[in-house]
Amino acid sequence: MNESTEIINELLQSLGLDTAFRTDSLGLLEKGESRYLRDLKLNFTSTLTSEHLSTKECALLGLSIAVNNNNAPLTTYFTKYADEQEATAAEIAEAVGCASLLASNNIFYRFRHFTQKEKYTQIPARIRMQLMMKPVTGKEFFELMSLAVSAVNGCEMCVNAHEDSLIKLGTTEERIFDAVRIASLVTATGKVIY
User: Fold this and answer.
1) 11 vs 42: CA distance, rounded Å
2) Catalytic residue list
3) Which DSSP state fits 51?
């Protein structure tokens, strides 16, 4: 067994997947004995902890991003990890709901931003957002998840609005940065494990 296969097996085992699991992307990295595999494994491991977020928050952020990216293996992994970090069923559901709600918001507000037409800002959005009103994870953390999902989905308007809200709530820039870092690394892992 070569080093690439060993690294893949370690990553798969940490995700609770069978070592025989392979995607086309993972197979290509393995065949080419890519040095990136070590980075991938270490980067993914770094999504599980943070100096600025609790392990439960890391788990819920990972889950929201995995759901946003429609990634079944990572959704399963982060659901289990969130449960192990004592996230409630309501908190887990909220991470899932946040991904879904922000998917619609990001498309809608990106459209408004792209077109730059005053008329579209005057027409009511008619998107229900009750989930944002009294989130079980708390207003600050829900905003943090919303920012992370918006960053992944590339909505400048939503990223700026959520970042501004977080700063006004007293969130540190380091905490914001770490949430987006975790979102980027969960997304990167999902390009290979899907």
Assistant:
1) 9
2) 155, 158
3) S
